């Protein structure tokens, strides 16, 4: 059916005549008596042709035509007038009307003019439809190409960057973020771009809880914040959640229906790409393992580390590199044989594999040295891992079998990006320096590992007649002897200041003494500490008047004479390691203090075991 025609004329007879004549030809006709009503009709509907009288009260036909052309420059208009000077007039030519007819109008002339105008209108409609179809085809072709590329590149790092770039492009979004499921099933932030501030993006989200229903529907949903509409797009492959994208700041001011539709198509392909990428990575890992130990080879590890360095630089993240060495493996091989040496190595790798996460990577660098990469792990976390690793190795049956005949000299070192370096070689160098420090540590030189906490305290404190402690230029200094009576209190004050200055620094602090009092310098200094203090702080001793404290955890040890006779501070953090142990006497205070990380860590570990305190 032909498109609608609007007839505008203050003459009722002409309106009825034109309506009857055009309706018989199959046209839909709307007739009004003035330009004001005509403009109202045009605002509600689109007309292929407007047939209007020139001379009308109020707004005349010329002014109406001008208003119509402002709305649609290609609007077909036929002017009708009793004046014979309208046809070919300068005003009509300037307005670009389709035709000018003079009343009284011959039926054939009117129908001919209308048919010509309607034919031009239909041609324009057809041209616009073809243009829309071409644009739609080009858009779908572009979408198809993007989807195929997501399936043809299995590299996860490339995929994570490309997914948010493509989603942003098809949805005209200036900002985008992507969370991808990790090995523990959480959605971890992997990529972001645009106007987003990283501090407002959660590092991890659980796919359960409030998100669960939305993710299972596998359909995009729209939300709004104070700044911009936000489109969330789940990545789901065969019912398995692979990720979640967040799009915001659309160029058009809002997300349209076609944005949601295209995002859904792209997300389905992206989910399959991510799933395939994870499978390929698993296969690559299987093919790049050492045959004897199942650890990865060094080539794969360095490639993996380079990608982790790129991600850390790109997104301001951190990770830690650990090195472990069996210093006396050649001696084990000579005394016990090659098979026992291999058994020890396999046992160590097996023990480490039990405590690492799926995202952690362990590699064999040489016969006696191993590397570990821990993504999203700060330096304090790396130190705690070294402690857990050594304990796990000691508990491994294969290692225990070898150590019954010859103890293994296992030493570990840690470094963190970017704190200790910004490339792989720098991080390895820093690890080895810390391994050297542990080798030279008082912990190894005095063979303190097997001693209980209070036995080690007695050995370290000694007596005025005890021999001097062994020293090594590579180790941190350790001293024993007379100490100032005020040292214990002054150290608490300084540590409290440091904790308040840097509340985000993670660490462990144990302060022990005869009594737990509210006026202890540490308790007073932390009264104004922020509630989100990252360090864990414990007071050990007999209860006096400290019932509760926002920043401190009291551990009441009633009747323990060893605690009653000593005072100690054990502090291990990302930036500091320090131990002070002292025993007050009648004449002077006798003490031991050190910044040797291995000794401090060993004392804390044994203190936790002695009083069944929870490890960090």
Automatic annotation (TrEMBL):
<dbReference type="Pfam" id="PF00990">
    <property type="entry name" value="GGDEF"/>
</dbReference>
<dbReference type="GO" id="GO:0000160">
    <property type="term" value="P:phosphorelay signal transduction system"/>
</dbReference>
<feature type="domain" description="Response regulatory">
    <location>
        <begin position="4"/>
        <end position="118"/>
    </location>
</feature>
<dbReference type="InterPro" id="IPR011006">
    <property type="entry name" value="CheY-like_superfamily"/>
</dbReference>
<feature type="domain" description="GGDEF">
    <location>
        <begin position="317"/>
        <end position="451"/>
    </location>
</feature>
<feature type="modified residue" description="4-aspartylphosphate">
    <location>
        <position position="53"/>
    </location>
</feature>
<dbReference type="InterPro" id="IPR029787">
    <property type="entry name" value="Nucleotide_cyclase"/>
</dbReference>
<dbReference type="InterPro" id="IPR000160">
    <property type="entry name" value="GGDEF_dom"/>
</dbReference>
<keyword id="KW-0597">Phosphoprotein</keyword>
<protein>
    <submittedName>
        <fullName>Response regulator</fullName>
    </submittedName>
</protein>
<dbReference type="InterPro" id="IPR050595">
    <property type="entry name" value="Bact_response_regulator"/>
</dbReference>
<dbReference type="InterPro" id="IPR043128">
    <property type="entry name" value="Rev_trsase/Diguanyl_cyclase"/>
</dbReference>
<dbReference type="InterPro" id="IPR029016">
    <property type="entry name" value="GAF-like_dom_sf"/>
</dbReference>
<dbReference type="InterPro" id="IPR001789">
    <property type="entry name" value="Sig_transdc_resp-reg_receiver"/>
</dbReference>
<dbReference type="Pfam" id="PF00072">
    <property type="entry name" value="Response_reg"/>
</dbReference>
